[in-house]
Structure formats: C-alpha cells, structure tokens
Amino acid sequence: MQVGSTSRPRVLVIGGGFGGLAVARGLARAPVEVLLVDRSNHHLFQPLLYQVATAGLSPADIARPLREVLRRQKNATVLMAEVTAVDAEARLATLDGGQQVPFDYCVLAVGARHSYFGNDGWERHAPGLKTLGDALDVRSRTLRSFERAERAAASLRAGELEPGGAEDPADRTYRPHDAEPPTFVVVGAGPTGVEMAGALIEIAQRTMRRNFRRIAPQRTRVVLVEALDSVLSNYPEELRESARRQLEGLGVEVLLSTRVTAIDEDGVTVERVGAGADASGEAGSKDSERLVTRNVVWAAGNEVPPLVRETVHRVGGEVDRAGRARVESDLSLPGAPHLFVIGDAARLEDEEGELVPGVAPAAMQAGQSVADSIRADLAGRQRKPFRYWNRGTMATIGRARAVAWIGRLRFGGLLAWLAWSLIHIFFLIGYRNRVVVMLEWFVLYLTGQRAGRLLYDRSGVVGGSKA
Q: Pick from 6, 18, 395, 35: which is nearest to 224 by CA?
C-alpha cells in the first residue's frame, strides 16, 4: 500500500530536527509537496536537552509540535512514523507499518544516537541524552538519588540501617554509603558532558543546598571522565584550559586521559589511557579506579542509525566508522542526485579540509542548501555546492561560566555565558518558548531554583517539590 500521490514532485524529508525542518521550510514557496516523517510528533531543541535532564527547564520549553511549526505551510504534511528502508532506484520509502511512500527527492536528516563502542549493555546503567525520554530518565535518576540518600540517612540516624537490611521503594537493599550525598559520573567531555557536569554540581551546591535535613548536598561528588587529554577537544587550547579551570572551580573532578572499562549497577571502573593493568588485571589495580555510583550519564560518542548505512550501501556509496555517509559537495549521495544526507548523518569537509561539525547551525545551513538545490533543479539551474559558515562555537559550564569561539575572538566567563544564552534563546522555535526559557534562566541565575524538580510515576507525583 502506498501513502498518498501527487502531481507535483514530492520531497520526502526523514527527520524533524534542525536540518529536516530547514529543508521543509526552505521549500515553502516551491512547486513541490513536502512530506516530513519523524518518529516523534515534535521538534526538539537538542542543545538544551541537558537542562531538562537537570530540572532547569521542562520538556515543553524546548520542544514544539511539528504540525504546529508547519501549520501555515500549505505544501507541507507531517507524518508520525518510522522509515525502515529507502529504495533509491524505485524511489520508494517503507514505513514501520509496511506502507510505502513514493518520492522524487529524499532527504535523510535522521540525526544520531549515542554510541557505547560495542558495549551496548552499558546503556541500561548509563543513559545518553538524545531525546526527551532520555532527559526525563536522567532527571528522574538524579532527583531520586538525593531522595534515596536522605531516606538512607534517616534510617541510619534511627538505628535502622544495617548492611543487607531495609529496602528502598525500588526494592533494592540500602548500603552504608547510600546515606552519603550521591556521586555522579559523566562520561565524555565534549559540550554535552561539560554542560551536564557543570549543571549537576550547581544543582547540588545551589538548588538542593537547603532542601535536605540529614544529608549535605553540597558534598555531592561530580566526576567528568574523558579518554582524551583535554575537555572540549575541538576547541582552541586556551579555551580548553579555561573550561577545565572553570569546571574545577565549581568543584567538578576532571579525569583526563582516562577511559571507562566497565559500567554496572554499582559503579564505573576507569583506567588511565596507555597505562597497562597489573598482573592481576583486577579493577583495584594501581592503574584502575572504581567509582561507586548509581548515577552515570553517557556523553562520549555518537553513531548514525542503520537506515543511513543501508541506504548508502544500496547506491554504492561509502560510510565512515561512525556510519556517516560520504556526500558530494551538494550533500547528495554519489550516483544518486535525488538522495541527500545532512546533519549528524553526513560526513563532509569544508574548504579548509576540516570536517563540518554535527551542530545545529551546520544542520540548518545544510537543510537550506538542499532546499536551494531542489529549487534549482526545478528551475533548470545548476546546483551550488554547500558552504558552511561557522558562526561560532560555545559551551556553557555553569552560572556566568562559559567559553566562546567566534572567528578570531576567544573568550570565557560571564561575557561568553551571556552570548551563549542570547544565541540559544534566539534559535528556539516559538515566541512562547523564548519567553519562558528567558524567565526561567533569569530566576535560576538569581536564586538557583529549578522549576522542573517533580518526580512522576503512573499514579501521580511522588517524592518531589517545585523549587
């Protein structure tokens, strides 16, 4: 069964992220039918996902329904589904229900998921941050860790806590160290990891400081683990050092040149990169360290969904180790000018031989470029190659702490934080989202209070309070 038919050329856009939405909007006045297919019904402002995970913002603050975003665009239709296969020769895409969608052009803007480098079993204990579901999972784990410590401390104070004794609401046995403020481990010191670590330490030191009676949240331990020898490895050296100093100034423990060798329900085992284990090979060897924690966030790597690899192989193209498609200068696949790959799923070098980064501005520019190419085809004009304009790179670390790299300008601290805040508010979709986020950040800056500190289960709100 085929979904829909049209006399005008159909552009199938797979993915409603920054790139996919830019394609759809860029074709608003073109004589085409745009069909945007996404597994979710919303566009997500992913750069602020960590703020949902750390209770600074609510899901609706950084997301907006795709149908609402495109409601005024008469030639655009949104379909909530998952594309499972793309047949480039037949120009048909197959949906998860078995339906087929014919197309004249297809744009793969599917983004990426976190990669555990072959250790997929770690995901259960160390969730990543790519979706609202991921963020809410991390938020729940974070808030519950403080509640668990308070309850364990209360039991200990009453003389009720014995090893192997009382059980918590999750039906797990308390242990003596459960009565201590929690330890958080963030794996990966790219922008997401740095921002997450900074937010976690601020929750403990500012937001939670006066909320508990039996534990001291300000003694919470936050450890940032990075296999490379610096944080923010793609930034200039002075900004990498600035970011590290700002993190350590907040109280984050930064472990560089350190790789994760094991993750389980009770903690993380790390080892210095290049350091050989002793003869025993045990986690307690002189080159290894065991971090006891139930709170691990994974921010160490990305991989592209299998759909991209399968589609590329069908047309005889190539992908790199991360599954990113090698594309032509116009972002189409070699030998298949009607198929485009953009965003995190594409591998393309700029004029200086540098890899175009997988960031929101690059995806939006790529989406607009693809829309321009399709319009050029329809008008009988030659396509123009994609040119990435780097408007700057920024990462926030905490309240009035950030680093920014804009052209030749490299700076940190309050000025970088203000620039980061203004740019992120500007790129949010929807007036309501911009106003709400601006107000939430204003309150957070002045008071340290976070509005998203509610815990939910199927029966309602549990164990939480609005800050």
A: 395
pLDDT at position 36 is 98
Q: Which two tokens stand for residue 89?
A: 């020769």
Note the pLDDT of residue 284. 42
Residue 335 burial (10 A CB sphere; 0-12, 13-18, 19+):
exposed
**Strand-pair category, 10-14 with 105-108:** parallel
- Do 120-300+404-412 and 10-39+81-112+304-379 fall under one CATH topology? yes
User: Which DSSP category does 219 fall into?
Assistant: G
24, 15 Cβ separation under 8 angstroms: no
Coil/strand/helix, residue 403: strand
For 70, the 3-state DSSP assignment is: coil
Residue partners of 128: CB distance under 8 A and separation at least 6: 113, 114, 134, 297, 298, 299
Residues 6+ apart with CB under 8 A from 124: none
Token pair in block for residue 224: 């940032």
β 33-38/10-14 pair status: parallel
Q: Are 107 and 96 in contact (CB under 8 A)?
A: no
Structure letter (DSSP) for residue 54: T
Domain boundaries, the chain: 10-39+81-112+304-379, 120-300+404-412
The neighbour count for residue 455, using CB atoms within 10 Å, is: 15
The Cβ-side half-sphere exposure at 267, using a 13 Å CA radius, reads 13
Residue 354 confidence (pLDDT): 82
Residue 195 bears catalytic tag: yes
Q: What is the CATH number of domain 120-300+404-412?
A: 3.50.50.100
CA 258 to each of CA 188, 223, 227, 268, 273: distance values in angstroms, whole numbers, following the listed order: 10, 12, 5, 12, 5
Cα 372 to chain centroid, rounded: 28
Residue pLDDT, tens place only, 239-251: 999 999 999 999 9
Contact 261, 270 (CB under 8 A): yes
Instruction: Please tell me the distance from the alpha carbon of residue 300 to that of residue 316, in angstroms, as a whole number.
Output: 30
- Residue 169 CA to residue 71 CA, distance in Å, equals 45
**290-307 pLDDT, tens per residue?**
999 999 999 998 899 999
Q: What does each C-alpha distance from 275 to 229, 271, 314, 431 come to in angstroms?
A: 14, 7, 42, 52
Q: Which segments of the chain have a pLDDT < 70?
A: 1-6, 157-176, 274-286, 457-467
Query: Which residues in 364-429 belong to E strands, given as ranges?
Result: 393-398, 401-406, 409-412
pTM higher than the cut 0.70: yes
DSSP H helices, 33-116, are 49-53, 66-69
CATH class of this structure's domain 10-39+81-112+304-379: alpha beta
Considering the candidates 150, 195, 271, 303, report the single residue annotated as catalytic: 195
